[in-house]
Fold these 2 entries.
Entry 1:
Amino acid sequence: MAKKKQPAGPPRPAAPKPALTPANGPVRPVANRPAETTVRPPARPAPARAAEPPASDLPIDRRYVAWWPPVVLALVGFLLYINTFGHRYALDDIAAIGQNLFVKKGFAGIPDLLRTEFWHFSNISLGYYRPLSLITFAIEQEYFKDNPNISHMINTGLYALTGLVLGVLLQKWLNKQVIIAFLIGLVFIAHPIHTEIVANIKGRDEILSFLFIALMLLSYWKHLETSEMLWFKGPMSDWPLGGLLGLFSVVGGWVIGSSLMVNSLGATAGGVLGVLIMGTLSTSWLGLACASLYFAFLSKESSIVSLALIPAMQYWFARRNVWQSLISLWPFLIVAALFFYQKQKMIGTLSGTPPVDWANYPYKILQTEKSTTFKFLMYYIRLLILPHPLVYDYSFNVIPSGDKGDVLTWTGFFTLIGLIVLAWKGFVKRTLWGFGIFWFFVTMAPGLGFIWFRGGIFAERFTYAAVMGFAFVLIWALQKLLVRESAESPKPLLVRYAPVLGLMAVVTGLYSFKTVERNRDWENNFVLFNSALPYAPNSCQVQRHVANEWIEKGLKDRAKADSIANVTNAIKPKPSTDQIKKAQTLIDTNIARANKHGRWALDHLQESTRIYPNFGEAYFSMAYVFQKITPNVDSAKYYYKQTIRAANAYAPAYNNLGVIYQTEGFAENNRRKIELASYYYNRSMVVNPAYQDGRNNHANLLKSTGINVTALPDSIINKY
């Protein structure tokens, strides 16, 4: 360690040189002096002083930011996903946007979105309260209707903004380590495992959650850097961030306040109250950090884990002690308590009631949640290092359950123990890799907890934030291995980091190539589902999804055949023989194609039920094939009843049975079958009050016949 420089002052008296010994030369005679004895007064105890309070460690030194890394990260994030702009809705987009009646209302649906669960219209109560992304979808519906191109552009823009914020935040943490901060951000932005989040519109809840967590951490760091209470009294360079975040908070305050209190204070009074609260918070960096956390919660309630990142950031990078770091959490804990109070009031639950479902919650039924969690840890780590292959669905039985005799389960267990030990050592020494492991644990907690507590399945989206923890460890390791510091012959910075930069150019280049390639799989459902088939043939969901796409094609073929027949029959005065022959040829061709697509669908559905014999939705799709594509009414009835046996809360099965019985009842003038139709329509509304098709069909039947049957004996139900 270099010695500290002594302060300037008067010259010190030179120390006397030692006398020469005879061996070194002649000794000069020295005059004898009497020895002097110094008598000191007795020591007196010093008067006790009052204990002084410890000096505040705030504000910390202000750290300046080079702007090229954030801009480059934003640009890379935007360019990587530009090939998603022409994509359609895929996977959960249909349920979150197309089938969400409140989203379809635009602005008018926002108050309802703040009062309902995320999957309200899917008849499941998972306890998910994530209105912010749904509100953005409603705004898009208001201005652009069903235009997925705009939604994909917005997702890409938000991801680019995330890169910009991360680029600034990482430089704040890693003072004067611009290259290291940039490379960590680059790994995060380029990583292909993010495609599920960005390329799938529904993934906006995850993008917004992480973006607001990053803004919260950045705003709080700004709070640590300043002694001013009001952020706008600081330097002008803080105004863009403070102003834009404050403006968003105030607008959000109006929207949320007017929506939440429309039935109590009224929309206007509620909006004014929301503006006052958010406007007050927006005057300081601490307030903006609290507002950002609230918006992160509204995006995804699993943002609660970010509370651990606030003290960790201070301990590792601001060099505050543990107590100072922890005590700073109190305003954020208040925000968390208020949010969960709001959630309880709005949807009536904090946890929901996950369904008993082999497809999505198999490990709960098998009672192997704990062992499977350890096994999945290894899968997550592997995908962080080598993100191939990537699959949109890992339902039963893509990854077999973990158990006591499974090698991968034990490997995951000992890996977890090892990571915990390393995290503790990294915490004590405040190392960069220690922070990376800590970040990984914190951000992976919701994903691993989904398996541990609910027995849920593996999902790539759970690693979205955890990638940054991996990036910290990776870049630290490469720096240690490839960067050589030399005090004797110091080299320019770029020369010293050339090996790291060269290797990372290759790694991020491969990551980027994989990202762009993977984006193409998310073009639409047909491409996405078939892309998973080679890598997840044992997924009952993938098999069903592929089958449903063939069903869609079969329906189009049938519709085309019907259209040709209608056009031919409409020819006046009547079609010629030649016209009839040409029309019949086209009709036969389309029906043959429909039958072929129906058979392919049934093949995949049979494979799906082989994997999971009680898969009600697969039986429903089978019934639909026989009802709409290769008509066989008896088979359709049989498989709809199989659906109800396997999944008795699946409303569409009741509704479609009602349609079949209503059609037969009118055709045969059979009142009993019409009563059966009414009964099944009523059952669809009982199992799912939000199911609109059953409600509409019941209302129409009641209006035309006056029949309303809510109960029938089993003998009648089984007879038909």
Entry 2:
Amino acid sequence: MKLFAATRRLFRILLVVIRYRLDDIILDLPMPWWLRASSYLLPWRWLPRRNSELSRGARLRLALEGLGPIFIKFGQILSTRRDLLPLDIAEELAMLQDRVPPFDSAIATALIERQLGAPVGEVFARFDSKPLASASVAQVHAAKLRSGEEVVVKVVRPNLRPIISQDIAWLFLLAKTAERASNEARRLHLVEVVDDYAKTIYDELDLLREAANASQLKRNFQGSPLLYVPQVYWDLCRPQVLVMERIYGVPVTDMARLAEQRTDMKQLAERGVEIFFTQVFRDSFFHADMHPGNIFVSTHQPWNPQYIAVDFGIVGSLTPEDQDYLARNLMAFFRRDYRKVAQLHIDSGWVPAETKVNEFEAAIRTVCEPIFEKPLKNISFGQLLVRLFQVARRFNMEVQPQLVLLQKTLLNIEGLGRELYPELDLWATGQPYLERWMRERMSPKQLLKNAQAQVEQLPHLAGMTRELLERMSNPHAHNLPPPWRNERRHWPLRLVGAVLLGGGATLAASAESYSLVVSWPSWLMLAAGIYIVVRR
């Protein structure tokens, strides 16, 4: 049954590939002549085709939409890898927002009741069967608790995991095939992209993980005028059901309503940047799926605007070392200290230690100098990061998943900020925060906090030291007994091995030729006998 389902899915994928002629996009990549010649064996390439006015990016986007939710989600994530994709394809894939039709409300209700273990009429005072919103992984219904709070109920689409497993298996196969056939495909690191996607999509299937992310983010911004995070009702949360406070706000892309309520657009754009830097550097915990569909603006104080965030399935974090190196990289970039940027990349391990600093510095300068010819407010922070990763990749920079999520988030924030307020100077907004954060890291208060953390480790270190000294004073105390003490019952097998050794040696000695072709039985007996005798 699984084989039949996988074959049927492959046939469906093939029909979409033929319909949108995705094979033309693949054949445009550099590949060996024999592989290009073999494309003429594909039967549909001999059929007459209709002229299409669609660009290659539009054809790819429509194909992903036609293949369903999993491929749509993959296209959304792929669109963030602007360091890997041609610009025209990246722009088209960025248009892939949540265009997934909802599934049957009766099925959604049954899933919720099965997860909660009670009818929705008993759990909720009101439950709207018509979905409030629908996405690639889940859909949302409005409801009201018996205690009076308005909530939303998020439920994962049914039977999604088997479909995901099949689709990801085919995506891996296509990516591996492309990388074997084309240098350009290898440069795009398609297998790594699919692997990142698989981890992300499986994480999104667990709504308890999303609930935990939301709770952490709410705790980080408790009482903040910058960002509001809805409350999670943990008693009603399950792996496939999430119940959260219902929020009321203006979609951040609804410029007409924002203007109607006289929102301070400059302050709104700047606060978006401040939220990003606060999440990344203060908390090391950032919302990594901040596309416009997940962001709203509060209607309470338009002159003092506050963001509202939803959908916390994807979050990112940085280690203290990554935070430090990233902040110092950004500061060095805008001071045009390219040698320091190169050295920081090597020190952080983002590029190999044997990289020549001078060559790396020259490559970074070549890419970045034209960018800095523009006024500072017109410099795209996100595109600068993209270009940096492109240069570093030429020097065998390893893929850093946390930096990919960071880049994606920064591109979303910057694009949104420029849309809200075109004159937004991202660097002028972020530089004071970066400088303040770097000063605080070296402040006496922070040094004292670090010292306290080290003191707390002393009992553990003392225990480790004592255990090490005991081992040094009696090095054989914890050794396992010699293997031969427990191997008496294996003597019949060892005897068989000895017989094979003797027989093989006898055959080899009596053979007229030591050619492997002629005397292979003796060599086989010798090999088998040696393996049986010496193996543990």
